[in-house]
């Protein structure tokens, strides 16, 4: 009976204080929507990829591919043998595939953008020869390609490029096996499961063989099984018919599963990033919820004391508060789930319009619902439990004093613990900064976690001197109003610290990311300024490669005094895959600062290699050593180390001569990462620029840049990557700002009688609003200062640990720091607008009489 009475009291209390109920639910919604939205969005992307790869390799019973990626493919002789033995093995149809990356021009002559999705060239397979009619459907009005200059293209890509049957355009084969070729689109095809940015260019079989293979190999062999032979049985038969440990033989289901697994690795990282930000939102939301309930219970001390006075026990009081928390938790969780669905839909729409990721209906599954319930109910009840127990233990007579809304408990114990964690965090961060590698980076991360915990515990003690000091400067021009605002900001240090923490956490992460970003850009600038002497750097767009044919056209362009192409080298040394460069053209020392530490000459011989200081130390490759590389075909190529050069990011980790390069890299795989160009004597920059633009005009993915433009393009790419992180952090910061609004609004409710008294003795509405503005600004700047100091310190140490991977000295983002602190003041004013207006509308007599 008593429990039923207390529940009715709780429900009536909720309905009687609608503003307080709204603010409480709002705080829960803030902590719920981000978590639920992140889970729904990642589930949707995962489902979209699953649907796509369920349609991969239609009709394929068994697929044969080389066992290693470096292999040139499956030899034609093997394909011929399998074809002859079709009946014996149980093969119905067999199809050879030639594939490679290509770029096609749109109707305006520019490269057709894919948004990150693949752009693939392959051989056209007629429907009557395909393993499944679902492989491709040639649309009416088109026909199959039959000549060297005819292609078909998937209809979705044609729509994006404003291309149609009969359109004349250009195609560049990614590996540069041939010069750009003029082609005519003779057909459009529908492809199952193609993503929004996917591009498929299909050539006649003999043309694809020339473009995408060395003539002796195919990329893969697909086959279907005759009736009565299962895919697994055909797999066993084909495996037995091939040399052991040479080829990978998989069923169609295994092919589809392997591709799903590869995507799931990406999705795991992608999901981890999103859930990391969701965790940030959860932490921020939890503090907002806890702060809200602490204030609400403090405001209700007199009310709860009256319940104790009329016979309610401590357990009944605490249970009534927890019941209220359960009710508002359920409401907040449901609303937060709804808003989370909206956030996921918005992210899905943005991603769909700006990338090649596939699309699928929103996946509102059990994990998202459970997350909303957990944050809405469990976190809310846990957050309410501590203040509920604290309120139930206050003697009734003492609780009925009007001053109980104030927090007068000692901060000494938690401050001591906070100092301990702070000292441990500082030691870990500084200790990690003096070493490089993954281990020290993890140490810095552990130190960062300790520092965050230290802020949680010690921030209330810090708030009084820091906020008080800031207030003496910023609030001084406002006289008594400023002094009152400063007093309000520091008199309840727990509330001030909890309100500021949300902003502290968000801005700490902004400062860490900003420090990493400016350091990356500083490393690029130093590498170009100190390592590169060339006037022009020609590379591929979107971090792509430069076709070999383009490098030859550049070398022959009028006004070019010298050029060198840095070609990619990928080969095996023992069991390890190695990556480096081969400078092809004029001596590399004419274009970069090649500081030889150990070498008889700075001219690289055709059968030799130079290694950097770092590589020499890590791998033990010294002058005079012979390194044996293994080519994709299995040929072993010994290369002599002729010298060691000072670390230069433009040349890391090693480079080899042209003769060794030609032995290791088949012509079909040769491609350049960048071309360095110097002008001929007497050639001005504008003339050479025009000449290079003309020479590369047909190569759709090639761009000409001078040194400053090259640095700017790299910086813009870094900014684009950081923009995604900043956008996600922006949501956390919005939650933090809304949390400040929520806390200030509750603070106004708490101080209703106080504000009424001030109004009664002559304070006008504008002065009330001004005092709330100043108080909010002081709290926001306090949170921003803590966040910036922590973030820059952690970011600085993290950059030092990444030196092993080529990152240079840390560069602090001073402009971001200044902007952040100024923005914190603006945020403080904006966050205080509604609470200040509400406070100014307080009626003096009603407020004074309010119990």
From TrEMBL:
This is Putative ABC transporter permease protein. Its main location: membrane. Residues 276-396, 727-843 form the ABC3 transporter permease C-terminal domain. The chain crosses the membrane at residues 21-41, 266-290, 321-347, 367-390, 411-434, 440-462, 496-516, 723-749, 772-799, 811-834. One of its GO terms (molecular function) is transmembrane transporter activity. Belongs to the ABC-4 integral membrane protein family. Residues 22-240 form the MacB-like periplasmic core domain. Signal peptide: none annotated. It is a multi-pass membrane protein. It holds the Pfam family FtsX. The lineage of its organism: Bacteria, Bacillati, Actinomycetota, Actinomycetes, Mycobacteriales. It comes from Gordonia soli NBRC 108243.
């Amino acid at each position: 009976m008593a429990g039923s009475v207390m529940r009715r009291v709780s429900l009536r209390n909720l309905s009687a204080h609608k503003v307080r109920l709204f603010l409480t639910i709002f705080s829960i919604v803030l902590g719920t929507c981000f978590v639920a939205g992140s889970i729904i969005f990642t589930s949707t992307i995962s489902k979209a990829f699953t649907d796509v790869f369920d349609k991969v390799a239609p009709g394929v019973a068994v697929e044969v591919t080389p066992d290693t990626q470096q292999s040139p493919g499956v030899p034609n002789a093997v394909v011929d043998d399998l074809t002859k033995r079709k009946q014996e093995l149980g093969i119905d149809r067999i199809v050879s595939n030639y594939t490679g990356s290509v770029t096609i021009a749109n109707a305006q002559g520019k490269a057709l953008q894919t948004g990150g999705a693949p752009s693939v060239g392959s051989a056209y397979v007629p429907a009557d020869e395909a393993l499944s009619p679902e492989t491709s459907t040639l649309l009416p009005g088109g026909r199959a390609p039959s000549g060297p200059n005819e292609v078909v293209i998937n209809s979705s890509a044609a729509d994006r490029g404003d291309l149609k049957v009969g359109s004349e355009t250009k195609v560049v084969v990614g590996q540069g096996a041939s010069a750009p070729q003029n082609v005519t689109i003779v057909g459009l095809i529908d492809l199952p499961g193609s993503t929004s940015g996917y591009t498929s260019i299909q050539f006649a079989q003999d043309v694809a063989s020339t473009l995408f293979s060395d003539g002796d190999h195919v990329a893969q062999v697909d086959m279907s099984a005759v009736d009565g032979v299962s895919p697994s049985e055909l797999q066993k038969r084909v495996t037995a018919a091939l040399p052991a440990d040479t080829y990978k033989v998989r069923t169609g289901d295994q092919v589809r599963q392997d591709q799903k697994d590869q995507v799931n690795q990406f999705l795991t990282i992608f999901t981890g990033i999103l859930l990391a930000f969701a965790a940030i939102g959860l932490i921020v939301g939890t503090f907002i919820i806890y702060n809200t309930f602490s204030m609400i219970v403090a405001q209700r001390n007199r009310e709860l004391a009256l319940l104790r006075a009329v016979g309610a026990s401590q357990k009944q009081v605490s249970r009534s508060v927890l019941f209220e928390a359960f009710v508002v938790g359920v409401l907040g969780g449901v609303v937060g789930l709804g808003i989370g669905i909206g956030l996921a839909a918005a992210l899905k729409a943005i991603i769909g319009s700006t990338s090649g990721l596939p699309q699928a209906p929103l996946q509102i599954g059990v994990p998202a619902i459970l997350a909303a319930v957990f944050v809405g109910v469990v976190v809310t009840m846990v957050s309410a439990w501590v203040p509920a127990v604290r309120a139930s233990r206050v003697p009734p007579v003492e609780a009925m004093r009007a001053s109980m809304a104030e927090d007068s408990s000692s901060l000494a114990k938690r401050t001591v613990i906070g100092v301990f964690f702070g000292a441990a965090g500082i030691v870990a961060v500084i200790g990690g900064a003096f070493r490089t590698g993954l281990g020290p980076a993890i140490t810095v991360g552990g130190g960062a976690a300790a520092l965050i915990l230290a802020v949680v515990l010690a921030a209330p003690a810090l708030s009084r001197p820091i906020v008080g000091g800031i207030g003496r400067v910023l609030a001084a021009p406002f006289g008594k109003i400023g002094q009152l605002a400063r007093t309000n900001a520091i008199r309840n240090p727990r509330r001030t610290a909890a309100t500021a923490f949300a902003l502290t956490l968000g801005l700490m992460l902004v400062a860490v990311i900003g420090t990493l970003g400016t350091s990356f850009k500083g490393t690029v600038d130093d590498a170009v300024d100190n390592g590169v002497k060339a006037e022009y750097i020609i590379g591929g767009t979107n971090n792509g490669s430069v076709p070999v044919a383009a490098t030859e056209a550049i070398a022959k362009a009028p006004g070019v005094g010298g050029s060198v192409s840095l070609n990619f080298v990928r080969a095996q040394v023992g069991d390890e895959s190695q990556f480096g460069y081969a400078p092809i053209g004029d001596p590399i020392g004419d274009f970069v600062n090649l500081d030889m530490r150990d070498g008889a000459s700075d001219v690289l011989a055709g059968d030799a290699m130079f290694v950097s200081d770092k590589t020499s130390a890590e791998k033990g490759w010294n002058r005079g050593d012979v390194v044996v590389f293994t080519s994709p075909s299995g040929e072993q190529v010994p290369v002599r180390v002729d010298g060691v050069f000072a670390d230069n990011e433009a040349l890391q980790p090693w480079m080899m001569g042209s003769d060794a390069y030609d032995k290791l890299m088949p012509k079909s795989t040769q491609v350049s990462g960048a071309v360095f160009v110097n002008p001929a004597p007497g050639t001005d920059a504008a003339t050479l620029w025009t000449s290079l633009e003309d020479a590369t005009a047909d190569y759709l993915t090639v761009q000409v840049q001078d040194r400053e433009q090259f640095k700017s393009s790299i910086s813009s790419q870094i900014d684009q990557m950081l923009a995604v992180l900043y956008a996600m952090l922006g949501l956390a910061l919005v939650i933090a700002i809304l949390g400040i609004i929520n806390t200030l609004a509750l603070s106004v409710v708490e101080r209703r009688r106080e504000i009424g008294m001030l109004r009664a003795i002559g304070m006008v509405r504008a002065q009330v609003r001004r005092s709330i503005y100043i108080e909010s600004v002081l709290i926001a700047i306090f949170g921003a200062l803590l966040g910036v100091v922590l973030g820059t310190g952690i970011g600085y140490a993290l950059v030092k640990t990444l030196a092993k991977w080529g990152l240079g000295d840390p560069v602090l983002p001073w402009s971001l720091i200044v902007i952040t602190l100024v923005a914190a003041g603006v945020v403080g004013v904006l966050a205080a607008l509604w609470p200040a207006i509400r406070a100014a509308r307080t009626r003096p007599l009603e407020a004074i009489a309010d119990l």
